[in-house]
Each structure stands twice: as structure tokens, then as C-alpha cells.
Amino acid sequence: MINLTRIVAVVDDDESVRRALKSLLHSVGVEADIFLSGEAFLGSLSSAPAGRPACVIADFQMSGIDGLELQRRPAPTGMPIIFITGHDDPAVREKALATGAASYLKKASNDAELIRSVEKALELRKLP
């Protein structure tokens, strides 16, 4: 089971997706901070460096900062990123995973698959 003290950031420009992910994470004992854009999420990192999330679940295709750019920017912190997308392109999936994404899931994935990805990402975060 997932550790209750872990916080996951959810970054998606769709309010219904943000709410659904927050509810799903809460149902398994994970606190979620939600952000409507990559810019809002990155701003939170600079304003509260001590309160960084254990991992990020981010929409891959957002206006403004897209998923790959979001992944590139917090990369020095070692923060695992799980991408969710409505448009699964195998070449994009390969690039995201090759550049360090913890997971790359279609938005239609089942809840258990997303929870397994979060558990895996949280375990990766514990490694030195």
C-alpha cells in the first residue's frame, strides 16, 4: 500500500481529470496537489522548494509547457513523472520513456494500472 505521507502533484488542463485523479489517489491514501498548467506547477516548485511532491502525474499534451518540457525542467530533482495522454503516439511514448518518464499511460487506462505506476514511481523516489 502507498505511504500516506507521500504527496503527488496532478498537472492537467482538464478540471474533470484533475478531480478524478485526486479522488482516485485519495481513495488509496495519497494526498494530491492539483495544478491546471505546467507553469502553475513549476511556479509552486520555486515558491515552496521544501514542499516538493514525491512524484508528478501530468497530461502530456497541454497548452503552454508540454509534457516533455515539464519533464525536462524538474529533472534535476529526481522527481518521477507519470504521463497520461488521450493521444498515444508510439514514437512520443518511446521518447518520453527514454528521457526518464516513470510511466506513460493512456487516459483510458484502468485505475489499478495508474495506482501501480504511482507505487512504482514512489519506490523509485526512495532510491539513492
Structure description:
It is a single chain. This protein is α/β, with parallel strands linked by helices and 128 residues long. The protein has a single domain (7-116), classed as 3-Layer(aba) Sandwich (Rossmann fold). Helices cover 42% and strands 19% of the residues. It contains 5 helices and 5 strands; from the N terminus they run E-H-E-H-E-H-E-H-E-H. Strands 2-1-3-4-5 form a 5-stranded parallel sheet, sandwiched between helices. The mean pLDDT is 83.
Question: What topology does this entry show?
Answer:
Blueprint (H helix, E strand, L loop, with lengths): L6 E5 L3 H13 L3 E5 L2 H10 L7 E5 L7 H6 L8 E5 L4 H9 L4 E4 L4 H16 L2
Parallel strand pairs: 1-2, 1-3, 3-4, 4-5
CATH architecture: 3-Layer(aba) Sandwich
Please state how the strands of the largest beta sheet are arranged side by side. 2-1-3-4-5
Roughly how much helix do the residues carry, as a percent range?
A: 40-55%
Radius of gyration based on Cα positions: 13 Å
